[in-house]
Amino acid sequence: MTTYKTFAKIYDEVMDETVYEDWLNFTTRHIGDNPKEILELACGTGILSVELANLGHQVVGLDLSKEMIELAKERTTPEDDLLSFEVGDMLDLNKNEDYDVVTCYSDSLCYMPDEEAVQTVFNEVYRSLKSDGTFLFDVHSIFKIEEEFSEYSYHYQTDEFAFLWESYPGDVPYSVEHFLTFFVKENNQDELFRRYDELHEERTYTIETYQSLLKQAGFSEVKVCADFTDNQPEDESKRWFFICQK
């Protein structure tokens, strides 16, 4: 098992499973019941893609990590003609397909290094959508970055691994650095654990900045809401959601 496969399995275990149901409900609420062709960016191990396909949508899950995609493919069978997974970069959606819907959840856009990269993603998504297509995504709010992630600490352990997550303010405005440490049991025959470390850097922007970048990409209508609801963001909203129409 590669390092990233180990991380992916751990991520699935420590992730709150109910959040996938929240993303699913948010998506279906905004795209309707009729079958759609959907591209899920940053699909990870494919949990949401599978659920969307189970509802009758034609889904392509895309992720930069080959190891994540390998795990996602384990969720499929040869009979799954509505679901496929591909390794790919949201900064370069060099495909000829046109989609009814593109999604990008789990604050994946916050991993873009700067505004230029975010603009590139918006441009690529716009180009990949049909003329009346919908782009759904979420990002961390400024409150989440500056208040809740300030000196954030989370520890989780089982008999097979331990996971330590520490967060600190980043070097640029509205940014955070997540230091992740994993202690993973080598095998079932002994008590040896191997340590792995990762640094994750995220940043967000004002709602007005996202709206401006989306407008530059060509989106004609943008609605902003918060925390899996259709309500407008408030000062202490944690996650902003954008519903964008081409």
Automatic annotation (TrEMBL):
Keywords: Methyltransferase, Transferase, Ubiquinone. GO terms for biological process: methylation. SUPFAM superfamilies: S-adenosyl-L-methionine-dependent methyltransferases. The keyword Transferase applies. GO terms for molecular function: 2-polyprenyl-6-hydroxyphenol methylase activity. Pfam families: Methyltransf_25. Gene3D superfamilies: S-adenosyl-L-methionine-dependent methyltransferases, Vaccinia Virus protein VP39. Residues 38-133 form the Methyltransferase domain. Its EC number is 2.1.1.222. The keyword Transferase applies. InterPro entries: Methyltransf_25, SAM-dependent_MTases_sf. It is an enzyme of class 2 (transferase). This is Ubiquinone biosynthesis O-methyltransferase, mitochondrial. The lineage of its organism: Bacteria, Bacillati, Bacillota, Bacilli, Lactobacillales.
